[in-house]
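re the bet — no i am not wrong, look at it urself. input seq straight from the record:
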Amino acid sequence: MIGVYDSGVGGLSVWKELRAVMPAEDFSYVSDGAYCPYGPKDPAFVVDRAMAVSRFLISQGAEVVVVACNTATAAAISTLRSAFEIPFVGMEPALKPAALRSQSGVVGVLATAGTFKGRLYLNTLARFSGRVKVIEQVGTGLVELVERGEVAGPEAESLVGRYVRPMLEAGADHIVLGCTHYPFLTGTIARIVDGRAAIVNPAPAVARQAQRVLADLRERTGKKQPAGKAGLSTFFSTGEDTVLRQLVRQIAGPQADSYSYHSLYII
């Protein structure tokens, strides 16, 4: 089983890609909605939550845990890898592919405050800041929009436009989505971008990395990959799960009827 973890429903954008490349695998997804958003919170708090959720997922039988949250990856991935024996896959900053592909020399990054402070992002920024101009924008309020299921409409258009239009006006030809919630706003972002910039979602690359990590683990342990079945997913939430269920249904269609949902209380 593969564990997947996010501060809320945003990590479903990663779970979607994980299902696409590993359809026979079982998943357990934890939405820590009671404490969402993580972006403005103290990094020590985010580490504590990541440790607690990871212990739970491992107790459920997770072979690999995907930290499907940019803020949690930035704050906690090193601690998690030191504390537990199983592999952890985090969200890699997608600034690198955007910088390499940019023709204008300007790249916009939309992320949380916690992500911008993370070592992975800062290291990547240092490597490519001489190649491109990077415009950073904290997406205040966007996570909350997605958590309410308001991914389109006047409020979403207004808030996304406030953040994205200045990037376009500065010449950005790539917009990097630095939070796993933001892919659910892709339709709104695309309408505002109107073909002037590529929208970079790191989730497919993270899913392929998780697939490689799991294959390597099974080769070393002698475990066989499941075949001939559709994987099942189990969802746990520390908060309200209406939007979680709606997005799972949107992603999985009728197969969502075979999934189970549970309230989770983690101190």
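see?? The first strand starts at residue 2 and ends at 6. told u. also The chain has a mean pLDDT of 93. so pay up
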